[in-house]
User: Fold F-box domain-containing protein from Zasmidium cellare.
Amino acid sequence: MTITTLPTLSYIDRLTTFADCWPPSLEPTTRQLAATGHICDRPPLEALEEGSHCITCNKFVKREDSVSALQSSLFGSNQESCYQGLKLHHAACTFLQNRIPIDAQSIESDLRGGQALSAIRNLWERRSKPQQHLQPTTHRHPQPSTLFSLPTELRLQIYSQIMPSMDRLTPITTLSKQSIRIVTEMGFSKTGPRDMTKINLLSTCRAVHEEALDILFTNTTYKFESTKLLYLFLRHIGEHGRALLKYVDVACGDREDPIAFSLLASCPKLKGITIRLRRPVLILPGSPLWLLDGVACLLELSGLEKVTFGECKVREGKLPKYLDESKADAAIVRRELTRPKGSPGGVRWVDGHLDI
Assistant:
C-alpha cells in the first residue's frame, strides 16, 4: 500500500465535494467523512459502487457502509455493516489521528455488557412486581387512547411528571474508561436501587416516544469534559435526539474535535454552546492537522443564539490559558457561530490554513 501526496484540502473543500452528489438526508455522514479526510468519490459512469475515499491513503468506503457506521445509533440492529464501515483508513494514513473515538471491539464488548445489564434489569423488575394469578385472556379490539384527545401542552405536563427529572446543567460521563456507553454523572454516582421504570413511557408507542423525548432536551444543557464524550453522546441519542438537542457545554482542544463538531453541526435546533478551549487562541504556530480541522468544524456551526466561553481544568502548577472574552479569537468564534444558519462563513481557508 502506498501513501499518495495530494494538495492540502481544508475541511470546507472536502465537504464541498459531497454537495449535489449525496442527498441532504445524509448530511451527518458527509460531515463526518469530510472531518476524517474523505472526499466524495466520483467514479466513471460505468462504475457500480458509489462512496468516498481518503485524500491521503485513497481508502475507498461504499456509501451504504459509511451511512450505517456514521449516522445511526451506536447500538442499532445492523452491527455487522457498522463494523466494516468503521475502517475508513489504512494503517499508515495521517488522518488516523482524527479517528472516530470508537472501534468495533469496544462496541461488541459493550453490546455483550448491555445484554447482561438488560437481563439483570428485567429480572429485578419481575421480582419487584407483586405476584398475580394468571387470568384467562380474552381478545379485544384495541381501543384508541384518550390521552391524545388532550391538548399537547397538557400531555407534555403529564410526561414531565413521569419522566426522570434532568438538572438544567447535566454532565455526561462514561461507565468506565474503556466503555463507550454513557450516563449522566448523577446516575453514575447514585448508590442503591435504581428506579428503571420511569423511562418505560418511551416504549409505549412512537407518538408518545417522540413527544416525551422532547422533555429531556427542552431546557437542559448537556456538559462534556471532552469532545470524545460529546461525540459518543450524539451517536447514542441518534437522529431523533440530535433533532431535539438545544444546548451543550464542551471542553475542546482534543483529537476528537473534528468528528464531534462535524456531527454537532447537523443538529438543526441547536441554540447555544459554551466553549471551554484549553488555549487562548484558535490556531497555534505549526498546528497539527487535527487541530486545524477541529477549528474548521467548530466554525461551521451557525445560527446559534448564545455563545459563551468557560474556564478549563488545568494541571497543577500550570497557569490557565483558556480562550475567554478578552481574546480577539473569541469574537471571531461568536461572529461565525451566530451568523444566520446556512449563510457563508466570514473566514477563509488558504492551502488548508485559516486566514483571519
About this structure: The mean pLDDT is 79. The chain is about 35% helix and 15% strand. The radius of gyration is 23 Å. Residues 11-98 form one domain.
